[in-house]
Write a structure and sequence with these properties.
The complex is a heterodimer of chains A (185) and B (149). Chain A is an alpha/beta fold and 185 residues long. Chain A is built from five helices and ten strands; from the N terminus they run αβααβαβββββαβββ. In chain A, strand 2, helix 4 and strand 3 form a beta-alpha-beta unit. The chains are: A alpha/beta (185), B alpha+beta (149). The interface between A and B is medium-sized, with 12 and 18 residues.
Amino acid sequence: MSVLDLPRLWRPATHQALFRRILDAAARPGKIAELGDLLDGRPAALAALATFCDNTQTLADLTGTLSQTDLAFLDVGVAPAARAGFVLARGAEAPGFAPRRGTLEAPEGGATVVVMVDSLTGDAALTLTGPGIKDMATLAPQGLAPEWLAARARWCADFPMGVDLVLAAPACLAVLPRTTMIEGA
Amino acid sequence: MRPQREDWAAALAAADRGKVAALADRIRDRARIEALAPPRDGLMLMPLRESVAGAAFHLGEIPMARVHLRLTAPEGAADGGAALMSDDLALVTQLAILDAALMADLPEVPEIEALLAEGMAARAEVEAQRALALDRTRVDFQLLSEDDS
């Protein structure tokens, strides 16, 4: 008898494929990474956390959508949003927390906030410029409260300190690193 | 008599490996098994406390494997788990399935209890041999008193 068959999301080969696609999306802000074929119906936000997190990281789940089994598989420490390295939040609700922004000596200590949205297309377009974008890119997320973009602007005002955003629709995601400038908010 | 649950894994690990594997496979074939945490095997530091000052220290690395799962069969469902000083993840998975089967009170319980009894007997025999070996190392020290000098 072999050991247990893990759900697809938690298999190493799936993590490797997810990492490649999310890395590509992070390198090209505004690019939408389609993950549906790897998820077996699980949300892309969970796939992003599965790719990012391990037992050296901390997570704050502000959505209450992660089960105990999900947390066990993520093998991540739980912390308040103000101290967590990763935060999972709902885009429809305005952010009511202040994430870690890192320090001048260690800007990599800034949090990564995974924001669950309804879709990455179909709403008013945001214009993106900055590193990784040739000329400009657009993204039109649905289900993202306007307060998020205002909050992100505050959090990322003192570069290199700041926060990296992952906008996660049910089966795809896009990454907005702290270096990306957003207009149209 | 069925031992305490925390002793089930160690007892079953001491029973006949072929019978344990066959029984766990039979249960697995007719039940749904899902992992509740990633099965893990590897080395972990063994924490101990020394007996003089009570200070904690790490004795060294030991192989460890653990499995936590949920078993759902037509007769019932239960969570099961096993952790063992071993790098044999397949064996620990089988022990976790038998643990869950006992908790779910499946029809295979008498067979599992027979394996538990077999394992407990094997462990008791090993303990007796160790106790005998330890007894042979005992030394009675007698101090020279002033009267003896």
